[in-house]
Design goal:
The complex is a heterodimer. By secondary structure, chain A is mostly helical. Chain A has 8 helices and no strands. In chain A, α2 runs parallel beside α4 and α6 packs antiparallel against α7. The chains are: A mainly alpha, B alpha+beta.
């Protein structure tokens, strides 16, 4: 791995937490059969933080795990999340690192397009016949549920990220030879 | 001139994405084309075995919250609800008594006709450990699997009626696809008119009775039960009752919505039908009968078989079959 690229550890840890939440928590907090998609949220957050390449890789792997845990055809969510991670991560850097509101809009849009693409693929392969009903009863409620959870998670992650950044900055300052000389 | 070691080239983002897309499409194709014993199904079964302890933990953690939720719902039940339920309970008690009478009469008549009792089914109880991990499938995970003899296709019941069918089995757990799922289909008929159709789930959560012709008279409140056609579900298991009937003159079939008798979200334990008891008993009795012939006992008349049948109620169906075989 390139020394300039950010550490993989937080991504791996976050991915494991996302899978654990999907397996343990998600089935028990379903509202009217609508289950939150933690792996989709984590992929989008990875895209915001680390960009397209890492997000598409994380999306593909997490999507594959999700496909194995769920009961649908294998390969659908891995395809959706790889595309979603890449698309979200390819946005302008200033947009990705913008305010919390902008990031929330990105999550909302990603949740909608992710669920929509999933629905379209299932309709194409003949798994779900009634596309209109799927859109109304699964895509839209799923988008809202994912966005609400994103609204809770994103400020927490940002706060944690900022604290980490402050710690790193202060330790760099103490190591600065010009400061030491003074 | 010194040669510097070449650094391995990194895949660009676009190439990586194309690779992921290709792999995903290949996996989807293989999944669609392979059977239930294919390699991807086997991998999923392995993953189900691995995740079972975590799902169980989730179910344990959520149980107190669900209990609180149920308690709150019960506490907020109005006096009117309680009165309605009490009246309904009394009606059902009376109906159960009446049905018990019919059941006993049916049993006696079946014995006389030497028919195997299709309703005495072997079942095993199982606990629900998890529900669907995604929005697109209405499934349950139960805590029994292939190690206890469960197989793909076995029907799953609640105390009231049909819940679904086992779709995949791992060693210690099984996944049940519910009748409310859009991928589910159950051969059924209307109890009153015996007109057959297919009960299917849907994305919107409604359950439809399809393929009922316009000429058939269907009323809200009509009971829908399994028809036994196809051989997956035994005949006569309650599914639900008709809540709405709609059609236009240009339609070929009526649009019938039914309300399932079981409320899936409230169940923690289910019954899996593992086989037909009568079939098992027939096999046992045929075996014992051949043993009797082998030991060359002189008096094994059909009358003895029927006598034994009357003495032992538990082996009724099997004994009567033995008697019948003797008679033949």
């Amino acid at each position: 791995m390139d020394s300039s690229s950010p550490s993989l550890r937080p991504t791996v840890l976050g991915a494991l937490i996302a899978i654990a939440l999907q397996v343990i928590i998600a089935p028990n907090i379903a509202i009217n059969d609508v289950v939150p998609n933690f792996v989709l949220l984590f992929t989008v957050i990875t895209a915001i933080r680390y960009g397209a390449v890492r997000a598409s890789s994380v999306g593909f792997i997490l999507g594959l795990v999700y496909d194995l845990i769920a009961q649908g055809p294998i390969g659908v969510m891995s395809l959706v999340l790889a595309l979603l991670g890449y698309s979200a991560g390819s946005l302008n850097k200033s947009t990705l690192t913008g305010s919390l509101a902008v990031q929330m809009v990105i999550i909302l849009a990603a949740a909608f397009f992710g669920e929509l693409l999933h629905s379209v693929i299932l309709a194409i392969i003949g798994y779900d016949a009634n596309f209109t009903m799927s859109l109304l009863m699964r895509v839209l409620p799923g988008t809202i549920y994912d966005s609400v959870i994103g609204l809770i998670l994103l400020p927490l992650l940002n706060r944690d990220g900022n604290a980490h950044k402050r710690r790193t900055d202060s330790s760099l300052k103490t190591m600065d030879p010009r400061r030491r000389r003074r | 001139m010194a040669l510097s070691p070449k650094k391995p080239k990194k895949l660009s983002g676009g190439l990586l994405l194309i690779l992921f897309v290709v792999i995903s499409v290949v996996l989807m194709t293989v999944w669609i084309r392979e059977g239930v014993n294919g390699p991807l199904h086997a991998v999923r079964s392995g993953v189900a075995t691995l995740t079972m302890p975590f799902q169980y933990t989730g179910a344990l953690l959520s149980r107190p919250f669900q209990a609180v939720g149920n308690m709150t719902t019960n506490l907020t039940a109005s006096q009117e609800d309680i009165s309605t339920l009490t009246a309904e309970n009394e009606e059902l008690r009376a109906l159960v008594m009446q049905l018990e009478e019919y059941r006993q009469e049916n049993e006696r008549l079946s014995k006389m006709l030497e028919l195997a009792d299709t309703y005495s089914l072997d079942s095993t109880g199982a606990r629900v450990i998890s529900r669907s991990a995604d929005t697109w499938n209405r499934v349950l995970t139960i805590d029994k699997g292939s190690s206890l003899g469960l197989r793909v296709g076995m029907p799953v019941l609640s105390a009231n009626g049909l819940l679904g069918q086992i779709e995949s089995v791992s060693q210690f757990s099984s996944t049940v696809r519910l009748i409310t799922d859009s991928q589910s289909g159950v051969a059924a008929f209307l109890q009153s008119s015996r007109i057959e159709g297919i009960v299917t789930g849907s994305a919107e959560g409604l359950v439809y009775l399809s393929y009922i012709p316009l000429t058939a008279t269907v009323q809200p409140g009509d009971v829908v039960v399994t028809s036994g056609a196809g051989g997956v579900y035994p005949k006569g298991i309650a599914i639900g009752e008709v809540v709405s009937v709609d059609y236009s003159p240009t339609d070929v079939y009526q649009t019938i919505i039914i309300k399932p008798i079981t409320r899936v979200s409230t169940y923690e334990e289910v019954l899996v039908l593992v086989g037909n008891q009568s079939e098992v008993q027939i096999n046992v009795n045929v075996q014992s009968q051949s043993d009797e012939y082998a030991s060359d006992t002189e008096d094994s008349s059909s009358t003895d078989g029927l006598d034994g049948n009357e003495d032992d109620g538990s082996g009724a169906a099997g004994s009567s079959t033995t008697g019948g075989t003797d008679g033949q």
